[in-house]
Amino acid sequence: QTQTLTMDEIREMRVRDIKRRLARTHGYSADELGRMLDKKELIQALAFEEHKDREKELEKVKRYVIVRGIIMALVAVVVVLGWPLWVQIYEVASVNLVVYSDKKMYEARRCIELGSVRGMVGVFLMGIV
């Protein structure tokens, strides 16, 4: 991504620099540059090419903003429409976690009552997994 020149910057350039930039950056041939005799024509050509480049960059930015907006809108729709589902999933997961932790606590208490160290290690390892 190159920095585009403003009209003031182009006006301050020498004819040789304008021709070089037109040839290297914008693909002008030596014949096309040779036909432009006046510095005003060169300035106008370079300003036009720089304007086109600036417009292309702005189009890319606009396209990116539009795509990002569409994606955010879709995410918002999924969240809003799926909210009851997300709440249900959360409630089921929390109930299952409570049941699982109560079961592991019961197993741990039974191992302590029976004095089984191996059983406690097993309950601990299964709790981690």
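[next item in queue]
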Amino acid sequence: MNETAQKLASLEVSENNSVDDGIEIDSFQTRTEKGTIVNFLIYKMDSCFFVWVGLGPIPPTMPQLVMGAVNKFDTSSGVISSVLAHYDGDTQTAQSMSRRLSKRTNKIFYITSTIPKGDNDDLIAFVEQQIISRIQA
């Protein structure tokens, strides 16, 4: 586990799922219609979100860390920037999610995901909808 992941994991959480630094933490698990177990860990901050998404009983790993942000210098085309900060495997799913979520919310998204690339469009749409519903709550 890298240093950033260790720091995030070591934050003490109060009863209302927020930490003293103004970070709100939401950790939950849900099932898709097909029965796939999806685990979420969302750190809500003032100007950004850190999201970890994992499938089933897979132990928590951080295979990549991708940042997606709206390009404020080119608002006409809605260009979304994506920066790869850490890489160990597939990044396509995390990059796509970070771009779409950033565009929908106009906030920066840091995403790490264990969802494999492939024919997972329904699963990815489900995951994004779960994230959006939790951050808007």
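[queue empty]
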